[in-house]
Structure formats: C-alpha cells, structure tokens
Amino acid sequence: MGEAGPPExxxxxxxxxxxxxxxxxxNRGFYFECHDTLEDLWSGLRGPVRDFFQGLIQVxxxxxxxxxxxxAGAASMARRALKRLSRYPDRYFGFDVAAQRADLVELVAxxxxxxxxxxxxxxxxxxxxxx
Length: 131
What we know:
Elements: H1 13-27, H2 31-43, H3 49-67, H4 71-85, E1 91-92, E2 95-96, H5 97-112
Antiparallel strand pairs: 1-2
C-alpha cells in the first residue's frame, strides 16, 4: 500500500484564492510575486502541510534567482526545495511532486556541471479537489 505521507491540505476559501493566484503567477513567470502570495498563504498554515508550501515557495525563489542570473542562489534554493519536497509522496495535493523533484535535480546537476541554465518557463498543474 505504501506510505500515506502527510495529510492533504484543506484550504478555506481565502487560502484557496491565494493558492490559485500564486500558481497563476508562477505559470506566468512572476516568480517573486508567486513567492509573496504563497508566503501569505504559508504563514497562516499549521502542521505538516507547511513544508509542502514552503517547498513551492523555494522553487519559485530558485526560478526568480535563475532569471536574475544568480546561479548560486538558484542552486541553493533548488537544493532546499528538493530537501523539503522529498518528504512528500510522488503525488500530493493533486501535484506531480516526483516531476518537480526531477526538475530540481536536473537544475542543480546542470549548475554543478558549471552550466548556467537558461531560465525556462516551468508550469505547475494541480488537480486538487475544490472542497
């Protein structure tokens, strides 16, 4: 049956609005704004779900650094996000955590090889229920 992992987040209407806005900002390449929006959400959460959202914030900050040419900062944030997201199952809150971890591993590996990865256009997709 496998490990269940932390319980799924249950967001109220305001938290869901912040989350949806943060995902939209990330998908449009507004990584700094995404960081701010998700941090507003994260600050009100309690329990093991906090680490998941903090991992997403760190992914956003890594891409923000990458877009500004701060390769060392991008690598540092990607490593921190990878460590945080490693605590979650491959699929969590309707999100492909395994794919996000693989993207982070590749980003860090490219930087470790001395490459400066071009800022891409990563996208997040969440199929979470709307309860």
